[in-house]
């Protein structure tokens, strides 16, 4: 009985342990023009990643082929906040659709690794500037 109560208490507290990560969508940032800041996010299963609209010309959406197995693609509206709920461990590639070719990408690593989809994510074809930035983020991931 005592074990069951402890388990129930732990499960009830799990949502309280979830963290919200905030990412700004910027015209200009530390890495140059058209960036997410921060562009590499370490998260835990159950966390949310909130992409903040700082300009009406940006959106955030997942990149096909850069999601853990079983995770559906998600797309935020232009100029609106987008909340990505991350459940499965692995890497989640993110892009701003209008500025994708200008390198506006981000990477969310969920869990401490190893990420089961890391090799697959590294093989996804990206525009040259997006690839350059994403390669740096993928190098940080496990």
Short description:
By secondary structure, this protein is of the alpha/beta class. Helices cover 24% and strands 31% of the residues. It has a single domain (19-140), classed as Immunoglobulin-like (Sandwich).
Note down, in words, how this protein is organized:
By secondary structure, the chain is α/β, with parallel strands linked by helices. Helix content is 24%, strand content 31%. The strands form two sheets. A four-stranded mixed β-sheet has the order 2-1-4-6, with no helix packed on it. A four-stranded mixed β-sheet has the order 3-8-7-5, covered by helices on one side. A hairpin with a 2-residue loop joins strand 1 and strand 2. It is globular, with a radius of gyration of 16 Å.
Protein traits:
single chain, 142 residues, alpha/beta, Immunoglobulin-like, four-stranded mixed sheet, globular
* Strand line-up across the major sheet: 2-1-4-6
Number of strand segments: 8
- Shape descriptor reads globular
Mean pLDDT: 91
Based on secondary structure, the structural category is alpha/beta
Number of helices: 3
- Strand coverage percent: 25-35%
Largest sheet: 4 strands, mixed
Q: How far apart, in Å, are the first and last alpha carbons? A: 40 Å
What's the SSE pattern? Answer: HEEEEEEEEHH
Low-confidence sequence ranges: 5-14
Question: What is the CATH third-level topology name?
Answer: Immunoglobulin-like
